[in-house]
Amino acid sequence: MNDKIFVTRPSLPDFEEYTECLRDIWSTRALTNLGKHVQELIKQLKDKLGVEYCLAMCNGHMALEMTLQALELKGEVITTPFTFASTTHAIVRNNLTPVFCDIKENDCTIDPDKIEALITDKTSAIVPVHVYGMPCDVDRIKEIADKHHLKIIYDAAHAFGVTLDGKGIANFGDASMFSFHATKAFNTIEGGCSVIHDANAMLKLYQIHNFGIMSEESVEFVGANAKMNEFQAVMGLCNLKNYEANRSKRKALVELYCELLKDTEGIRTLDYSQERIGYNYSYFPIFIDESIYGMNRDQVYEILKEQEIYTRKYFYPITCNFKCYKDLGFDGRVDVAERVSKQVLTLPLYPELEPENVERICTILKK
Ligand code: T4K
Q1: Cβ(79) to ligand 1 under 6 A?
Q2: Are residues 233 and 257 in the same domain?
């Protein structure tokens, strides 16, 4: 029980089940380039996400970068800095300028009240993040985007399986991408997928994810290689079968954490009680208010580390403070994101985490 505890551990299928599926790959030697397992995974992902179009990709970052490219965006993109490096990098690597918008304190998603003030005649899109799988305020964001003719591309890296009003979260906005990285609630080792609702843009995405090749003798777009391979797809097909059972285990652990921490002054957790939302319980962040708790986030991080409990500061620093973005000249205010990023600590959460370890972590936090 007292082994090292990491912020997450990848879910793996039964070893024999995975290796049995590999026999087929050995016999056909079809390892990649849209093989039958990738095609089957795409079919199952469409069902699971409740969408018409979906493309499996080599990882979540390339899914986002290429989705932005396929939508042919220009100029400025309004986004949040309270995210993983990937969101901002994908924007900048498309020669777009990120304009950072502050977040809401309660769920850490983009604050719709602060978007309109950032819109200029160069703005072409909004890239909000369903951070920790918490849905953004999709209705307000749509209203703003419609009014100003902007595209919405959701970074849904954390939000696989999340529903809002009974609909898969990818049904909101013009496009969404998901990460299937080893550390995610559903993994294909590395991997991800993109959903775009416009058929032409989806076709372009399909082409650019394979070098822009249209046929053996025709290359029409400057693409790259973002294809998922067959080994990833088999992992996905096996893991998808266990997704709901794993979600239930994560849900029980989140409920235990919330129950044990509910009276701890100075520690706030996210709200999991909204009836509109089908949560995926992908991360368990807590927010430590030093003035009440009497100790800051970094001290708590160190104390847990001494006990071989390895938490993570998702997301600190915020991306607008990255060294590589110092030259962007961003001089806006993102006060909530600044504050929350100094308070946040993401606690261990994965299906095999023993409830006894959740209790141990909470006992340390309550001391
Ligand atoms: N947008 C957002 C909002 C994202 O959060 C991400 C990725 C993306 C886009 C891009 O998606 P991908 O291209 O990654 O598909 C991790 C993940 O690498 C990254 O996928 C994720 N977000 C980010 C939030 O977390 P690190 O650097 O913190 O991971 P790492 O290697 O330190 O792993 C954390 C812990 O998990 C380890 O301490 C131990 C455990 N672990 C990890 C791996 C990789 C294992 O037990 N086994 C493993 O194989 O970034």
Answers
A1: no
A2: no
Q: What is the pLDDT of residues 240-280, one digit of tens each?
A: 999 999 999 999 999 999 999 999 999 999 999 999 999 99
User: Domain holding 300: CATH number?
Assistant: 3.90.1150.10
276, 345: one domain: yes
Residue 307 predicted with pLDDT over 80: yes
Which residues are CB-neighbours of 34 under 8 A, at least 6 positions away? 210, 227
Q: How many CB atoms lie within 10 A of CB 276?
A: 9
Domain limits for position 292 = 242-366
Atom 24, ligand 1: residue with shortest CA distance: 84
pLDDT of the residue at 327: 86
Neighbour count for residue 306 (Cβ, 10 Å): 8
Is 313's C-beta closer than 6 angstroms to any atom of ligand 1? no
Ligand 1, atom 26: nearest CA belongs to which residue?
183
- Cα-to-chain-centroid distance, residue 208: 22
> Is the pLDDT assigned to residue 1 strictly greater than 60?
no
Ligand 1 and 157: CB distance under 6 A: yes
- d(Cα 138, Cα 81) in Å, to the nearest integer? 18
Per-residue pLDDT reduced to its tens digit, 174-233: 999 999 999 999 999 999 999 999 999 999 999 999 999 999 999 999 999 999 999 999
Ligand 1: centre distance to CA 8 (Å): 9
The Å distance, Cα 155 to ligand 1 centre, comes to 15
Q: Quick one: how far is CA 278 from the chain centroid? A: 16
* Cα–Cα–Cα angle for 255, 261, 265, rounded to 5 degrees: 150
Name the one residue in this structure whose structure tokens are 């936090």.
Answer: 365
Q: How far apart are CA 57 and CA 71, in angstroms?
A: 17
Q: Is the pTM of this model over 0.90?
A: yes
Same-domain status, 286 and 162:
no
